[in-house]
Amino acid sequence: MCLRFSAAMPLSTQSQADDEQYVLVASLDNARNLSNILKAITFKDHAIFNATPNGLKVTVEDSKCLQANAFIQAEIFQEFTIKEDLVGFQVNLTVLLDCLNIFGGSSVPGVSTALRMCYGGYGFPLTLFLEEGGVVTVCKINTQEPDEPIDFEFCSTNVTNKVILQSESLKEPFSELDMTSEVLQITMSPSQPYFRLSTFGNSGNAHYDYPKDSDMMELFQCTKTQTNRYKMSLLKPSTKALALSCKVSVRTDSRGFLSLQYLVRNDDGQICFVGITVVPTRRWSDYGASTKSSPTFTQAPHLQLRPVALDWLQE
User: Fold this and answer.
1) pLDDT under 70 in the chain at which residues?
2) For residue 211, what are the contacts with CB-CB under 8 A and spacing of at least 6?
3) Which of 21, 25, 41, 277 could covalently link to 68 via disulfide, CB atoms 3.0 to 4.6 Å apart?
4) Is residue 28 within 8 Å of 78, Cβ to Cβ?
5) Which strand ranges, in their side-by-side order, compose the sheet holding 24-28?
6) For residue 19, what pLDDT is reported?
7) Residue 294 included in any domain
8) 177: Cβ contacts below 8 Å, ≥ 6 apart
9) Which UniProt keywords are present, listed alphabetically (predicted)?
10) What is the pLDDT at residue 175?
11) Is residue 301 part of a domain?
12) How many angstroms from the chain centroid is the CA of residue 239?
């Protein structure tokens, strides 16, 4: 990465001719609207960026057992110009966040950092133009060819249980989870206990129950009783998205895979989404693979960034 301070003209006065060299240009009046959503999925150094005319999808993965996606619709940006059907690259997410907050990430009312993010295509760096108080900083971050994200094949047709809750109902229990427990057990059932979170730590067993008629429960669709366990270490990163969100969708499919979808409002009241998929704790042989090898998942096809993350709100 290289940084340089520049006395360049303000972003608002830059000509369209300057953009001809880029295949992707995305502008925001407030860089926090991007940095906050990226912080929610920052648990590994590198992230895969995929852009289509519909917006931007940022993917972070861990050990073929956890995948987090941030969805930022094109409408969130003040400008979103893309010259190809798909533009993809991989960058160091930690470095990107440091650049986005180079002016300190001020939350003072009326003070914001304007962002113009440009990418010239394969082999070119990701260039950030950041302006605050008339000072323009230019950051160039090296990019890599993106890896193909794993397709966990989690589709709505295979969903067996689904609930939508107000995030406040989960924030306190998640903050109090016994982190000495290696797993979080989730029970979803059409009968009692309906929706239960359980831990098994040094201080004993603990259960958090959510009645289906609770004021915090906005949707309850459970067709069969399922009890699955997930590594606490894999779920811990999701607390960042939970803290930012106002609603959360919890879904499990017939294999016990867990999908968490968070509705997040940015500083301007616009809606973005964070989706997290977690593999349950099972023997590798349960996935039809050798016990000496990892489970086999197909690679994701080229991104079609339609509002897939919005499906859970359309019930």
Assistant:
1) 1-18, 105-109, 283-315
2) 194, 217
3) 41
4) yes
5) 2-6, 135-141, 126-132, 114-119, 24-28, 79-82
6) 72
7) no
8) 184, 197, 199, 206, 232
9) DNA damage, DNA repair, Nucleus
10) 83
11) no
12) 11
- What local confidence, expressed as pLDDT, does residue 13 receive? 54
DSSP code for 294 = P
Whole domain around residue 105: which residue ranges? 2-58+75-141
Stated pTM of the model: 0.84
The predicted structure's pLDDT at residue 16: 57
Final residue before a domain boundary, out of 92, 110, 141? 141
Backbone angles phi, psi at 157, to 5 degrees: -70, -20
Residue 97 resides in a domain: yes
Cα–Cα nearest to 228, from 211, 205, 251: 251
Number of domains in the chain: 2
CB 219 within 8 A of CB 162: yes
pLDDT at site 213:
92
Query: Is 306 within the bounds of a domain?
Result: no
Specify whether 82 is located in the same domain as 196. Answer: no
Reported residue count of the chain is 315
| 189 and 79 housed in the same domain | no
Contact (Cβ atoms closer than 8 angstroms) between residue 217 and residue 225 = no
Same domain as 165, residue 136? no
State whether 162 and 233 are in the same domain.
yes
Summarize pLDDT for 186-230 with one digit per residue, the tens: 999 999 999 999 999 988 999 999 999 999 999 999 999 999 999
- Considering only CA atoms, which of 222, 271, 207 is closest in space to residue 245? 271
